Amino acid sequence: MRKRGITDFGSKVHRRGLVLLLAAAMMVSMAACGKSGDSADGTQVKEWAYVPEFLTVDEENANYYEMQIAGENLYYMSYDWDEEKGESRQNICRYSLTDKNVTSVPVTWTEESMNQNINRSYYLEDGTMYAIVYSYSEDYSESAQFLSKFDAEGKQLFLQDITEQYGDSYIETLVVDGEGRIYIAGDGKVWLFDAEGNAKGNISVDNSGNSWIDSLVCGKDGKVYMGFSNYDGNTSSYTLCEVDFDGKKTGESYKGVSRNGSIVAGGEYDFLTSNGRAVYGYNLGEEKGEYLFDWLDCDINGNHVRQFGQLEDGRVVAVVQDWESNDSGVALLTKKKADEVPQKETITIATMGGSYNLQSQAVRFNKASSQYHISVREYVNYDNFNENTWSDALTNLNNDITSANCPDLIDLSSVNISQLVAKGVLEDLTPYLEKSSKLNRDDFVDNIVKAYTFDDMLVSIPAYFNIQTVVGPVSMVGSESGWTLEELIALAKEHPDAELFDRVSKQYILQAAMMFNEDSFIDWSTGECRFDTEEFKNILEFVNKFPDEVNLEEGMDSEPTRIQNGEVLLATAYIYDFERLQMYDEIFQGEYNCVGFPTVDGTGGHALSAGEAYGITVKSAHKDAAWEFLESILTQEENDRFRSGFPTVKSKLDEMAQKAVEPDYVTDENGEILKDENGEPIISGTSTIGYEDGWSYTYRTPTQEEVDAVMELMNNAKPVSFNGNDEITKIINEEAEGFFKGQKSVDEVAGIIQNRIKIYVGETK
User: Fold this and answer.
1) pLDDT of res. 60
2) From CA 396, how far away is CA 751, in angstroms rounded?
3) Beta bridge partners of 186
4) Is pLDDT above 60 for 674?
5) H-helix or E-strand containing 487?
6) SS3 assignment, position 261
7) What pLDDT is stored for residue 180 in this prediction?
8) Could you give the CA distance from residue 65 to residue 451 in angstroms, rounded to a whole number?
């Protein structure tokens, strides 16, 4: 069977970026494709390793984003300038994985007068290319879509107009089967064409909008298979099925395939699949795939693998693109016995589900360290997500923490830090910081250090952070920061004809009311709970006034419009740079105050959402190595990586604040500032936020007063104790339903919640 090109595209839910730090030399790492038992600490003993060799394509215009694997070659389109014709020219490039050379041929059009551009492509092993071609009129006022085929020399063999079939549909990808028939997927449909490009109908996955196509692939049997996801409102599922060309329908379906953005024809297996973390071998008809290896064990961030496949000799090839640093390349993975590969000591990091940035940091650390290897243990299974997934993941994490399988570090972004501190799980970082030759306590924003200090123990130092707060008009919330739950409830009663927040449900209000108040009802150190108090009953009665669900419809007025019309009282602000507050100044016409989320004691409730906040566990056998990893994150240069938020390092934050108030003027080639039609200097970097109802705001350079206001929020922000995803939330939501539906009194429900949470707290102490 002839090996075919591999097509891979992420679903509408799971599109991912692509990262790999390249080296032009062999790097050693470990990845399992089988088990020989479990070690004493409960970790998996790995029998096999996939050893990576990193390559760069030695061609100036190498296009890793569109690169595809076909046989022993990588194909992609490149562009160069044709001086003779004064236009850009498209070339079909082939990179040989055998001799590591690049060859290219220019695309030859049958109709040179057309303004044509290749948008989607698919390659066969012999270099034949199928493509979606967009054609534009000379003034670009009209466009058309064509299906085209090119031979290995770049000559166009046919051009079929498919504009009528597609209309405004978005084309995701195309695949060719073993008989040369063409399949094009997009917007929940697969369009079918014969080998000459003639339309033969289409197949619709689902007209309800609850299903979408994740992948389309030609298997090693020459048949085309489609992977699609379905969401029924509570749970989601993923199905792989054969595409029946002749019957114009979906054929036999196969369960047990993990949801993924990547499924390719296999060698030993029918298919290889990747979920961004690990690679599995899957045979049709089996209940589940067989785990092969983790990308991270190969020093690759699997979220950033653009294409991958298997060569005739069994090696796995991965095309990886780094959107952040533009370092991209190709990795060839060779399977070897694990005992033949030099070993590193494993440092395990536990995370609920935030492994995207973490994997990037782990790859960076692993490549630089000759002694240690970071392994990420992700607890939330997004391949099979349902309403219990998060609570089950927390249970598994807590079980590991109390067992011999305790991780070395924990991602603290989605867990209850107070609970972990009370249980004695987290190590005090103060001694490590005092001994560090790279970091000093005074290097960091004071309130960040304070916010992550519990009972005189510094449990984490985040790399960056955002702020979330409640904003309202001064006339209603006053000019000071902070208010109580009673004051929030009173405000709602004073304005019965207005909504407190824009179109929010019971669940949102419950989280807003409890965000900073969980510790007022739970003492994790003693196990005492106070959910049967009048304070908590008042919260339940207040929450019950809001709708169970909110229906959002097209054409509805925006939040800013509704606030200015008096229909909504408050807004929730998400602040990740020094510009964000401007919009609220406009919405509330200069009379706004960041009052914060309500708290029992009335102190300012500005939520600190930290990024890359990790804590070392007391049980870790590699504490010095774990600290070394933390140091590598905190000392990394800001421009080396992507972040959205404020840096925790004072000097970097001060630099960000200084640059924020400096206008960035547009200049010409001589450095002269350009001016608009009114003679005003043109400032670059401005952006506009707009809504469907016409309300919009264009951001400007912040004033020093606005920067100072944001800095003041930072000085008072703190991590939230009630994150809406933990077991406490689940218990409250489950039992409160009886009161919300009128089946039980508020006293009954509060008593049940009190008993259940008291038992839970006692079990987790």
Assistant:
1) 79
2) 28
3) 189
4) yes
5) helix 485-494
6) coil
7) 96
8) 41
Which residues have CB under 8 Å from 456's CB, separation 6+? none
| CB 511, CB 722: distance < 8 Å | yes
In one-letter notation, the amino acid at residue 318 is A
pLDDT at 557 over 60: yes
The Cα–Cα gap between 1 and 61 comes to 32
Q: Give strand ranges (E) for 33-152.
A: 35-38, 44-46, 48-55, 68-70, 73-82, 87-96, 102-106, 115-123, 129-136, 143-150
The values of phi and psi at residue 607, to 5°, are -80, 130
Distance CA 25, CA 157 (A): 41
Spatial contact of 547 and 505, defined as CB atoms under 8 Å apart: yes
CA–CA distance from 660 to each of 298, 590, 700 (Å)? 40, 20, 10
Q: Please choose, from the candidates 611, 64, 54, 45, the residue with its C-alpha nearest in 3D space to the C-alpha of residue 363.
A: 54
Give pairs for 264-267: CB < 8 Å, separation 24+.
264/6, 264/8, 264/69, 264/217, 264/308, 264/309, 264/310, 265/3, 265/4, 265/6, 265/217, 265/218, 265/219, 265/220, 265/309, 265/310, 266/220, 266/310, 267/220, 267/310, 267/312, 267/314
Q: Burial-class residue 40 by CB neighbours within 10 Å (0-12, 13-18, 19+).
A: exposed
- Rounded Cα distance, 670 and 672, in Å: 6
Which residues, other chains included, contact 264 with Cβ-Cβ below 8 Å and sequence gap of 6+? 6, 8, 69, 217, 271, 272, 273, 308, 309, 310
**Do 307 and 95 contact (CB within 8 A), yes or no?**
no
How far is residue 735 CA from its own chain's centroid? 32
d(CA 515, CA 517): 6
Residue 83, C-beta contacts closer than 8 angstroms, at least 6 positions apart: none
- CA 516, CA 488: separation in Å to the nearest integer? 14
b/e per residue 623-637 (b: at least 16 CB within 10 A): bebbbbbbbbbbeee
CA dist 374 and 153 (Å) reads 46
- How far are the Cα atoms of 301, 328, 329, 731 from residue 320, in angstroms, in the given order? 9, 6, 6, 43
HSE (side-chain half, CA atoms, 13 Å) at 462: 28
Give the C-alpha distances (Å, rounded to integers) separating 609 from 333, 509, 638.
38, 19, 19
Q: CA torsion angle for 587, 589, 594, 595 (degrees, to 10)?
A: -100
> Which DSSP letter does residue 698 get?
E
Q: Average pLDDT for residues 141-154, to the nearest whole number?
A: 90
Name which of 168-177, 663-672, 687-696 the model is least confident about.
663-672
Which of 36-40, 95-99, 107-111 comes out lowest in average pLDDT? Answer: 36-40
What letter represents residue 420's amino acid?
L
DSSP output for 306-317: EEEEE-TTS-EE
- Which value, in Å, is the radius of gyration of the alpha carbons in the chain? 29
Strand partners, 93: 76, 104
Backbone angles phi, psi at 259, to 5 degrees: -60, 140
- Going by C-alpha positions, the residue among 162, 205, 212 that lies closest to residue 182 is 162
The 10s digit of each residue's pLDDT in 42-58 is 345 578 889 999 998 88
Residue with tokens 């008042």: 538
Burial of 615 (0-12, 13-18, 19+ CB in 10 A): buried
